[in-house]
Amino acid sequence: MPKPFLSDEQWKKIEPLLPNPISQGRPWAANRRVLEGILWVLKTGARWRDLPAEYPSASTCWRRLQVWEARGIWLKIWRQFFAELDARGQLDWSESFVDGSFAPAKKGARASAKPNGARARSGWWWSTAKAFLWESTWTQPPRRK
Predict the structure, then answer these.
(1) Residue 98 DSSP one-character state
(2) Nearest of 21, 80, 30 to residue 55 by alpha carbon
(3) Domain count of the chain?
(4) Which domain holds residue 80?
C-alpha cells in the first residue's frame, strides 16, 4: 500500500466517527483503506477508475463516499476538527470563510458556455455549506480561564 495520507494520530481521531462496516455478504473493505482511496482520488484529481490496485475498488470507495455523505459523516468529522481547533484557540471565526465553489471544465466546451443546469451540486459543496452554516450559527460556550 502506498504511503498513507493520514497519520496514525489523525486516524485515531477519525475512526470513531465512521460507522462500522456491516455486511450481509462479502466482508467490507476496512474504513481506513477506503478513506485512503478516497483521499488519493481527491488529492490527485484522477478519475475513480484510475484508483491504484493497492486501494479497495473504485466502486467501493465511491459508494462509501456517497453513503458517508448521505449519513452526515463528513459534517460530523468537520465539526469534530473545528471544535478541536477552536478549543486550542487556533481558529479566528471573525476572519474565516468557506468557499467550496469550483467550475469543472467540460471537454470541448467553449469558455463562455453555460454549465448544465440539470447537474446537481456535489456532496462536498453541501458539506461545506452545512459546516459553514452550523459554525456561523453555533453559540460558542464561554472559555474556561
Answers:
(1) -
(2) 30
(3) 2
(4) 73-89+121-134
State whether 50 and 83 are in the same domain: no
- pLDDT tens sequence for the chain (145 residues): 678 899 999 999 999 999 987 777 888 899 999 999 999 999 999 999 999 999 999 999 999 999 999 999 999 998 888 888 889 988 877 766 665 555 565 666 566 555 555 555 555 555 655 555 555 555 555 555 5
Tell me which amino acid residue 44 is. T
pTM: predicted TM-score of the whole model, two decimal places: 0.63
Q: Directed axis angle between helix 123-137 and helix 73-87, to 10°?
A: 40
Tell me whether residue 81 is in a domain: yes
Contact (CB, 8 A) for 41 and 52: no
Tell me the residue type at 11.
Answer: W
**Does residue 49 sit in the same domain as residue 65?**
yes
What single letter denotes the amino acid at residue 60? Answer: T
Q: How many angstroms separate the CA atoms of 86 and 88, rounded? A: 5
Name the grid cell of 66: 456517497
Secondary element (H or E) of residue 43: helix 31-44
Residues 66 and 37 grouped into a single domain:
yes
Answer yes or no: do 42 and 83 share one domain.
no
